[in-house]
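I'm curious: can you give me some protein's one-letter sequence along with its backbone structure tokens because I've never seen that pairing?
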Amino acid sequence: MALRSFVASNPCRYGIKASRSLRTYQNISGIGSWNDTRFDYHPCVVTSHRNFATDDKGSDKSKESNLPSVPTLQDAKSMDFTMKSMNNDVLMILAGMDNEPAVEEVLKRHIMCVDEVDYDGAEKTFHKIRAENRKGMVKYTFPYFAGISTAVVCAFGSIPLCFDYNAVHWFNEQYVTMDVPEPRDLETWLEVGSWSWNW
């Protein structure tokens, strides 16, 4: 009886397989013939093609309802692109992707929860936190700017020190003291560069 009720409650999924199991069970136990067993189920028929329902009415209204809707100009103009208009789930996803405006908005909402203030009050606290966080930033970033500036100056300064005869000759007399080639070997800037490239 339990197997019958289970098959009857799940006709489409278990109807075919369970009916075979029930037939075998009845033959072994002798509780009755298969013809005495009555329950309704709808077998699932597998076909090699798909059957799609069609609209017999053929009305234009039903066809238009199937068309994908597109946003209007009014919808586009009414869209708010600010972070404050987004919900918490979207903000958490963007913040997890290291989106800085989203991280700032999450912090503002966290301030609202902790301090129990409105959005304007949370923004004031946020600006205080950001100002405090940026104190001493010039001191900590000075080595980076100094290194970048030195690299840029040396990069552009190496051009005349390699190809300009006057700059190369002055640098050679002050620091290198290498023998100067014959004047006929220093007629072009490429020849000057081949000489300065030795040191």
